Amino acid sequence: MKPTLVKLLSRNDLNLQRWDRAVRSAPYGLSWWLDAVTNQRWSGLVLDDYRAVMPLPHRNSIGPFKLINGAPFTQHQGVFGDLQAGDLDLLLNAIPKYYHVRKLAIYPPWPATRVLKNWVSTPRTNHELDLNPPYPIIARGYRRDLRRKLRDSPVTTLAEWPIAEFLSFFQEHTGTKANLSRTDYSALKQLTRHIITQKTGQCYHLTDDEGKTIAALVLVHHGNRIFNLLAASSHAGFGLHGMPRLLDGIIRAYAGTDTILDFEGSDLPGVALFFQGFGAKPIEYLRISRS
What we know:
Elements (H helix, E strand, L loop, with lengths): L5 E5 L5 H7 L8 H8 L3 E6 L4 E6 L2 E3 L2 E5 L10 E2 L5 H7 L5 E8 L12 E12 L4 H6 L3 H8 L7 E2 L2 H16 L3 H16 L3 E7 L5 E10 L2 E9 L1 H5 L2 H13 L5 E3 L6 H8 L4 E10 L1
Parallel strand pairs: 5-7, 12-13
Antiparallel strand pairs: 1-2, 2-3, 3-6, 4-5, 7-14, 8-13, 8-14, 9-10, 10-11, 11-12
């Protein structure tokens, strides 16, 4: 039997086409995504000639010493590819000691209860909604208070919105709460520019009776999944149930298709409760650091 081989390669030494072909479950491992959120400062673990891959974003480094601390707007680091039992251990053991791993997020198929030797792990929570059933069946799973809010509002027709306008709206209404740095905003602009260039996402918004935007979000498509990457509501939007209506519009548009809506979070109780109101199911994953 051929031995399993793991290579750690710098971004410039990777075959990016083969790398991207391995990244099928989520967009966070795509080379252009990583380039945008790290300013091209990332390395990659390659298992068995690109059978499976795992990115290591390191925006901060001193000589050979690199700090692995996640990346903005990037929920997890895989692992991506055709996965087999034992792959996670092989990849983690291949991370050099001079890489200080403060934060690295690992998504299923590995359960969040898994014990990793020499690693400290913290369970994190995401929420996903299967959009394969027809809309009436999905809506039957909505929480009662959500159904009441939607019943008192007109059905949402999705309207696309330029990313540049969304970014201004996001910065005004959400940026201060999210505590984003100037570097984070620069990464966000790069990322959204790439999303449009790669034709992998859209921005949608909802307006009030005067045509003023009250809620908006950015969706990213990858495989059979859509990711709720960014969202923002104005003060008026909260009163007019803007975000519930906008998400309901997304669900209506994709209901009855082989699609998973990935809400991208959350461990915040209020946000988690909001996502669960649509019938979304919690999915646990791991955030790890090296002990």
